[in-house]
């Protein structure tokens, strides 16, 4: 039940997932503004200190190649075996290859007679001043033909020098500067995407996307009911945890205060039905695992950041005691989705994120109390989920479900498992996390470092939920 909705901020609609990019044929592209980073667009490739071949495609006996100058974060297109009049150009996209309206046919040029190889000038991949995170592809059309061939989308190694930063950069290609959210996914997923970016800053030291923290906050603080509060208590908690991550990164107290406002709002939904616990939503028709495990994590995390607190600690303790006795943890030590009308385990799908959040909650509660039994319980739960063939067919984590929510689940799980792994002196889940990351990187990655939902592959499509899960994974395997 808690995997059946993906609420969006009012007015944003429900964006479609990123699949094959649409053609711009028949739609005259607008003029591309000249971008100047280290150098301005239309720089001579002869001046490039580096020359890396990204991909070559064939069309009509010609070869169209995309080449990069990684030193200066620029690229150019080349046509080989050229005949007079053959065209070659670049396309540039700032939304993960969904569109390239004003970035179409950059450097469009035709091969003159007597040249077997012809090339465009160099163009920037990104727009540093405009916060545009870009991709390039090379395209060509033989003289007299209507057939166009293009390479896949690629970028330079700028902010993508290794798999953690490359995954984060691909995620930021989906960040909407106008809304402060991530296109192609929902409201609560964007909270997790922002958390993944913040964690990436922590583990890699790359601060290029730090601007997203304040921008997201400023553009969305008054959405819904204000302070990132809406009708779903798990959504409120996700945003609360995102702002605690932001507080840890920046020290800005407004993020801590917003997390407190969210936690206080959620606490209003605790009552005696089923012996305790919070309701999933303002409708008060379901008590489930995700909302209640997040309740424990958020309150314990607040206690750990507020000197002298006792209120949030007591809520976290009470929340965990209720969760442990609720029977949502089944006989296999996996967490089912929630409780039925009779306050019994409903035996619905043990989604991966329902296995993960209790681990993070117990890590925070252990930090607050020093109670070693909490880590012992967390280890028992983690052993069950990492060893489950249902959750890990062939040894690779997989949630069997679609919709807008499920692609975020695995990212939540591995983020929490990594937190537990760091808290245990023997680091027992390092090999598991690295196996997931190595497999996804090898089998489930596009040319632009985008990832799909099944980490065992093959790659078919990506969106911001799938991508933040991959960023969480790469962060977790650090």
Automatic annotation (TrEMBL):
<feature type="compositionally biased region" description="Low complexity">
    <location>
        <begin position="10"/>
        <end position="28"/>
    </location>
</feature>
<keyword id="KW-0378">Hydrolase</keyword>
<feature type="region of interest" description="Disordered">
    <location>
        <begin position="435"/>
        <end position="478"/>
    </location>
</feature>
<feature type="region of interest" description="Disordered">
    <location>
        <begin position="1"/>
        <end position="28"/>
    </location>
</feature>
<feature type="compositionally biased region" description="Basic and acidic residues">
    <location>
        <begin position="435"/>
        <end position="447"/>
    </location>
</feature>
<dbReference type="InterPro" id="IPR005198">
    <property type="entry name" value="Glyco_hydro_76"/>
</dbReference>
<dbReference type="GO" id="GO:0016787">
    <property type="term" value="F:hydrolase activity"/>
</dbReference>
<dbReference type="GO" id="GO:0005975">
    <property type="term" value="P:carbohydrate metabolic process"/>
</dbReference>
<protein>
    <submittedName>
        <fullName>Glycosyl hydrolase</fullName>
    </submittedName>
</protein>
<dbReference type="InterPro" id="IPR008928">
    <property type="entry name" value="6-hairpin_glycosidase_sf"/>
</dbReference>
<dbReference type="Pfam" id="PF03663">
    <property type="entry name" value="Glyco_hydro_76"/>
</dbReference>
<dbReference type="InterPro" id="IPR053169">
    <property type="entry name" value="MUG_Protein"/>
</dbReference>
């Amino acid at each position: 039940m808690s995997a059946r909705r993906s609420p969006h901020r009012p007015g944003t609609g429900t964006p479609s997932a990123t699949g094959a990019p649409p053609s711009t044929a028949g739609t005259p592209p607008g003029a591309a503004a000249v971008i100047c980073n280290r150098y301005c667009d239309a720089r001579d490739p002869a001046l490039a200190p580096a020359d890396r071949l990204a991909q070559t495609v064939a069309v009509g006996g010609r070869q169209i190649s995309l080449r990069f100058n990684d030193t200066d974060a620029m690229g150019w297109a080349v046509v080989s075996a050229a005949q007079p009049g053959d065209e070659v150009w670049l396309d540039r996209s700032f939304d993960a290859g969904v569109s390239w309206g004003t970035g179409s046919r950059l450097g469009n040029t035709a091969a003159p007679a007597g040249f077997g190889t012809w090339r465009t000038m160099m163009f920037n991949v990104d727009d540093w001043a405009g916060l545009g995170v870009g991709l390039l592809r090379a395209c060509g059309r033989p003289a007299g033909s209507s057939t166009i061939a293009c390479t896949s989308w690629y970028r330079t190694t700028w902010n993508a020098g290794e798999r953690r930063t490359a995954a984060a950069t691909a995620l930021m290609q989906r960040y909407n500067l106008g809304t402060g959210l991530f296109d192609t996914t929902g409201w609560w997923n964007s909270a997790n995407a922002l958390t993944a970016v913040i964690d990436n800053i922590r583990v890699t030291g790359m601060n290029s996307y730090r601007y997203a923290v304040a921008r997201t906050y400023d553009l969305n603080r008054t959405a819904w009911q204000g302070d990132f509060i809406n009708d779903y208590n798990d959504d409120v908690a996700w945003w609360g945890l995102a702002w605690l991550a932001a507080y840890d990164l920046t020290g800005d107290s407004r993020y801590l205060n917003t997390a407190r406002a969210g936690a206080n709002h959620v606490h209003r939904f605790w009552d005696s039905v089923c012996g305790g616990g919070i309701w999933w939503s303002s409708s008060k028709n379901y008590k489930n695992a995700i909302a209640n495990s997040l309740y424990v994590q958020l309150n314990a995390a607040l206690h750990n950041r507020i000197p002298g607190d006792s209120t949030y600690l007591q809520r976290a303790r009470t929340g965990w005691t209720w969760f442990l006795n609720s029977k949502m943890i089944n006989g296999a030590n996996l967490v089912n989705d929630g409780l039925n009308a009779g306050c019994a385990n409903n035996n619905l799908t043990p989604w991966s994120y329902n296995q993960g959040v209790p681990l993070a909650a117990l890590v925070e509660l252990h930090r607050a109390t020093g109670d070693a039994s909490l880590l012992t319980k967390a280890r028992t739960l983690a052993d069950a989920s990492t060893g489950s063939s249902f959750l890990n067919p062939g040894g690779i984590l997989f949630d069997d479900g679609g919709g807008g929510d499920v692609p975020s689940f695995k990212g939540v799980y591995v983020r929490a498992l990594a937190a537990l792994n760091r808290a245990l002196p023997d680091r027992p889940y390092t090999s598991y996390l690295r196996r997931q990351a190595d497999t996804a990187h090898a089998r489930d990655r596009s040319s632009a470092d985008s990832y799909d939902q099944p980490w065992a592959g093959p790659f078919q499509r990506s969106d911001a939920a799938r991508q933040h899960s991959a960023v969480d994974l790469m962060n977790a395997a650090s």
